[in-house]
Write a structure and sequence with these properties.
Elements: H1 33-36, H2 43-54, H3 63-69, H4 74-86, E1 90-96, E2 102-108, H5 145-154, H6 220-231, H7 233-236, H8 244-259, H9 264-272, H10 282-292, E3 314-316, E4 323-325, H11 333-342
Antiparallel strand pairs: 1-2, 3-4
Helix pairs in contact: 2-4, 6-8, 8-10
Length: about 350
């Protein structure tokens, strides 16, 4: 009989990390261990490289866009990008468009480019070339007179060459003119006649981004209401999920709206309405709307309108039963005139 084989389950390690992996079927990025376990890159650079490789083609990865997306400062993000360039994971080049605008082209490599200079490693200089040793010429041996005479006899004697005959120009026939001499070649134009090169158009300066509005008077209650409104946006729209740092940065702008008598429900409707289909930076969208759609202050109260003139009520005449206006009932003007004449 065969001996039954017992397969013992694998034991978890007593210390260290334990992996609980789930197979990805969509929305994932393959990153090599040469990047994730790089021994010379900082943790910020490794995380930034993983984020850039997960973005679609054409996504904007400028320093300001990354600083708005992550809590790291622009200085740390710029240093991490330089690390990735030094180790061959990133390449940035500046190009000028036909319109004159200068743009930055960024290429991300999932494998480090060979030949990239290491950070802090000096470039090697070519060493001096070795000097070549001069070749030694063989020293001619002296020849004896019989050997020289024998060599002169063996060499063939040169044959005299005939002298070339120059053609004599024919005289022109009577009644015909002599052929004209060829026209001299035109002299090259001097450099001063060449048109001056057209200078490239200067790049259009990028206008600075407007700053977020701030309230004129700091009110603690308004600030707390602004924090609650920004944190509660994800309940009304799941895509407006903001980080804690973005909420504290945008709260003064919302308080400026409250200072101009904007109701919290009106502010919420303005921030949630008509969102784009692909929303990747909710904090940037909210900052743009809070800045460009800021309502003006309410005008001062208008002066009270003058009281309308008071009219007497309508009365029925006691004589002719005709309606007329008077403070008290009685006779109309015609009836009063008739009574005075009868008296």
């Amino acid at each position: 009989m065969d001996t039954p084989q017992i397969i013992a389950p694998s034991r978890a390690p007593s210390s260290g990390v334990v992996h609980s992996n789930t197979r990805h079927t969509s929305r994932f990025t393959v990153i090599g261990n040469h990047l994730a376990q790089h021994s010379e890159l900082s943790l910020t650079a490794i995380g930034l490289a993983a984020h850039i490789q997960s973005l679609p083609a054409g996504a904007r990865i400028g320093i300001k866009h990354l600083a708005d997306r992550f809590p790291e400062s622009e200085t740390r993000i710029a240093a991490a990008l330089r690390e990735l360039e030094a180790h061959g994971y990133l390449k940035r080049t500046r190009e000028r468009l036909p319109s004159g605008r200068v743009v930055t082209r960024t290429v991300s490599y999932n494998q480090p480019v060979a030949g990239a200079a290491r950070a802090g490693e000096p470039k090697s200089r070519p060493g001096p070339k070795p000097r070549s040793q001069p070749r030694r010429q063989p020293v001619p041996q002296p020849r004896t007179r019989p050997q020289q005479n024998q060599q002169q006899r063996q060499q063939p004697q040169p044959q005299p060459q005939p002298r070339p005959v120059r053609p004599v120009p024919e005289a022109p026939a009577p009644g015909t003119s002599a052929p004209e001499a060829p026209a001299p070649a035109p002299l090259p134009r001097p450099e001063a006649d060449k048109p001056a090169p057209v200078p490239a158009p200067a790049p259009t300066p990028v206008p600075p981004r407007p700053s977020l509005p701030r309230p004129q008077v700091h009110d603690l209650d308004r600030h707390r209401t602004a924090l609650d409104l920004l944190a509660d946006l994800r309940r009304h729209e799941p895509r407006l999920l903001l980080g804690e740092a973005d909420i504290h940065r945008l709260a003064p702008a919302v308080a400026a709206w409250f200072e101009r008598d904007a109701h919290p429900d009106a502010v919420r409707r303005t921030l949630v309405a008509d969102l784009p289909g692909s929303l990747t930076r909710p904090a940037g969208l909210i900052a743009h709307r809070l800045t460009t759609l800021l309502p003006p202050p309410l005008p001062t109260a208008a002066p009270a309108e003058e009281a309308a003139p008071r009219h007497d009520p309508l009365q029925n005449c006691d004589g002719c039963d005709r309606a007329f206006r008077a403070p008290e009932p009685g006779h109309c003007r015609e009836c009063r005139t008739g009574l005075e004449e009868a008296a």
